[in-house]
Structures are given as structure tokens and as C-alpha cells.
Amino acid sequence: MAKCLSFTGSADFLYRSFFSYSGLRSVKTEFPDGTTMHCWVPKSQKLSKPNLLLVHGFGANAMWQYGDLLHHLMPRFNIYVPDLLFFGESKTVRPERTEAFQAQCVMRLMEAHGVHKMSLVGISYGGFVGYSMAAQFPEAVEKVVLCCTGVVLEEKDLREGLFEVANLDEAASILMPQTPEKLRELIRFAFARPLIKGVPSYFLSDYIDVFCTDHVEQKKELIQALIKDRQLSKVPRIQQPTLIIWGEQDRIFPKELGYRLEKHIGDNAKLVMIKNAGHAVNIEKPKEFAKNLKSFLIDSRLSPRSKNPSHRQRHFLIWPTP
């Protein structure tokens, strides 16, 4: 009897109901090349509102990663929350696994929904995809928020010990846990203060069954494509105003990558380092995360590094000092 009850599945149902209650609807879009993209889109698009794309990372699905932000953002934006390929209900028969291809698919999806201008938020892997969208489609992407996104990592960083994992196989085994022990390890990596002690293995196994058993090989290929032959010199510099949010105690993408990313983008970027938070900063510090998002996204008059000192002070008054 107990095995019939999935706490993770029940929570997922509640998130789905909440998204629908918040004014979004679930839509699948099929493309002729064998690609299917799922997305939460507005039930009623308001032309007076700007469009905002929320791109998820690895881990639980997009609803779990952005559910707590909806009530902050829905009044101000037309919200779009897609499933990336091999997550949720999105898939493809195409062989490409790069973030550039993911970005192209998301852009096709947005165009299919009649969206040609947008700002975007990308968490972790979703930030890789969002960054690529900004680089490939600069006329469509207006503002960018990157959260704990190691876009500027290099393959040599893995060999030189920047990360706590030794190789890609070890990274994949943590990011796609198949046992309760590996899920505990992922939680310890993702949170500055992981509340994992005493959690029964049943709950962890249930989470794995719901979120970590589909498209395992394809997701490994996504991780491999991120790092293989990656060099900073090959990463384009995006031109959009960009907010970078990082957890100071991030153990998956160390904070050094946040400083490196800010330097790489240049004057259009601003880094906010949030204390007492790890990789899952959007979950550990949801109020601070939302506050920074709203400050950056809603004040459309200012770029991250306004040359007017009074403007700069007003724009960053609530932001923590890196």
C-alpha cells in the first residue's frame, strides 16, 4: 500500500495545479524535425506586459525551480516556462546535445507562441542555454539573468582541480543520482546548509523515481557537450544588460566562475554574491533572489553599469555587496 503513494508525485501535482491557478497553461509544440517542446504559457497574453522566459537547470523540473517566483513575476510579465530537451515532456530525435541547439529549440518554441522579444532568467544549466540564446539572437533577448551558471568554465578547470569532482562521470553520477546516497551527496553539494540528516531513504528513492530515471544517457551527453573542448576564448561576449546571481558557497560552480563571468561580459554585467547560500540560491534565499530579479528586470531604464552615479546608486541600493 505504501508503495502506491508517491510524495514527490503528489507534490508535483500540486505544483502543476498551482501553475494553472496562477494563469498558465501547459502546451506541447511539435516541430517537423522530430522535436517536441513543452512549455507553460500565459492563458491570456497581455500585449501591455513584457515577456519573460524562465529556463530551468538540472534537478527537479521547471515547476519546482520557479514555482516560488510566480507570484512575484506574474503581475508584471507574460511568463513562459519551457522544459528543455530531455527534461519533463520535451524530447528530440535529433543527435545534437549542445546548449546552442537547446537555445535554438527554445527560440523556435517562443516564435511558435508569437514571442519575438523577451528577457530571460537561466538557473545553472538553464543559464548556459539562456546565454547562448542571448548570443545567437541578440535582437530577441533584451535582458539576461544568470544564476550560478558556469558559462565561462574551461575543460582544463576540471583537470586543474577547480571543481570538487575528478571527472565527467563523477559529475554525472551526482547531477543525475540513481541511489539515495548519491542524492544525499547532490544535496550536500547544492545547499550551503543541507537539511538531509534523518531523511528516510524512501523519500529520496521516490524523488529519484520521479525525476532522475528518464533520458539518463541523453542527459549525460548534455553534460559532456558542456565541457568537452570548452575554452573561454570561444565563449562570445553578450551585449545585453546582464545580472549574475551567485551563492557564495556554491560547490557545483565555484564563485570564482561568477567573477570570471562578470569580467568576461564586461561593463554590461553586474555580479551579486549572496551570502550563506550555495548552488540552489533560488531555493535557499528565495526572497533575496526575487528582490534582485525584480529590481533588475522591472527597472527597464537602467543598464547594470549606468554612467550616471545617482542612477547607479538607486538601481543597486538593495543589492548585497559582492
Q: Care to count the β-strands?
A: 9
Task: Give me the secondary-structure category.
Answer: alpha/beta
Point out poorly predicted stretches.
305-322
**What is the overall silhouette?**
globular
Mean pLDDT: 90
Protein name: Hydrolase YugF
Keywords: Hydrolase
Organism: Sesamum angolense
InterPro entries: AB_hydrolase_1, AB_hydrolase_fold, Epox_hydrolase-like, Meta-cleavage_hydrolase
What does this structure look like?
Residues 50-286 form the AB hydrolase-1 domain. Helices cover 41% and strands 16% of the residues. The protein is of the alpha/beta class. The longest helix is centred in the N-terminal third of the chain and has 15 residues, at 7-21.
Quickly describe the structure:
This is Hydrolase YugF. By secondary structure, the chain is of the alpha/beta class.
Structural descriptors:
322 residues, alpha/beta, nine-stranded mixed beta sheet, 9 strands, disordered C terminus, Epox_hydrolase-like, hydrolase
